[in-house]
Structures are given as structure tokens and as C-alpha cells.
Amino acid sequence: MCVLQATIALCATDDNERTTMKIIGATTKYIGREIRGAHGATMRIVQVFHHHLLPGTNMGLDENHAFSDEELERIGGVTKHDRIEAYIIKADGTRADSRRGFMNLQPRAIDLEMFAHLA
Questions:
Q1: 25 pLDDT higher than 80
Q2: Cα dihedral 36, 39, 42, 44 in deg (nearest 10)
Q3: Which long-range contacts (CB under 8 A, 24 or more apart) does 21-27 make?
Q4: Scanning 15, 49, 51, 96, which has the fewest C-beta atoms within 10 Å of its C-beta?
């Protein structure tokens, strides 16, 4: 069983050990419908836009961005009000690109399988 706490998922094993899972750099499935054509795609997390979905949030402030798990822990972890910057991973494990080069997407945190329980 895993419980998301701050920037890491704390997972209890059968012998009550705790293991941690990184968020920044982790891969997860996109389960939302907001981004057309991406449903079911595997995505790698690049950064978190903290409270991006709340009115009045100033996304120009560095304190609202997390590029590392340490920064994410400092701002309180992932919430249902966040957007996640991520990119699609192709079946061969390489980064998907568009005709204009690499493309990062910004799904809602709750549209990623890893954070669906926050909805």
C-alpha cells in the first residue's frame, strides 16, 4: 500500500519497511481527457506547477515551481490544484516529439494515474 506524502510515496511492504518513490523524473500514465490524443500515454514528470489551478496564483514566482523532489517537498508536495509538466514517452522508451521539436504538456495532476487519488 502506498500513501503520497509531500514529494514521495511512502510504500509499506509486507515486513513494514518503508520505501520511497521519486516524483520528478517518474513515469506515469495520462488518464485524463483534457489533452486530445494523449489518453493512456506514458509520461515522464519534469516539474510541478504548484496551485496552478487556483485563482490568483502567480505562476511567475519561482516559489510556485518545483524542478526537484526537494523543491516539491518545500512547497508542500503535489495537490489536486497542481499542473504537472511532463512529456510523452514512446513505446521504445524515447521521448516523443512533434514537428516543431520536443513538446512538454501540462496536464492536471489528477489526470495522471500517480495522482488520481487526489481528485
A1: yes
A2: 50
A3: 22/69, 23/48, 23/69, 23/72, 23/78, 23/114, 24/48, 24/66, 24/67, 24/68, 24/69, 24/72, 26/114, 27/89
A4: 15
Could you report the per-residue pLDDT of 44-55, keeping only the tens digit for each?
A: 999 999 999 999
Number of Cβ atoms within 10 Å of the Cβ of 106: 15
CA 65 – CA 91 distance, rounded (Å): 29
Spatial contact of 24 and 82, defined as CB atoms under 8 Å apart: no
CA distance 62 to 42: 27
On whether the pTM is more than 0.70, the answer is yes
Q: Which residues lie below 8 Å from residue 22, measured CB to CB, with a gap of 6+?
A: 7, 8, 69
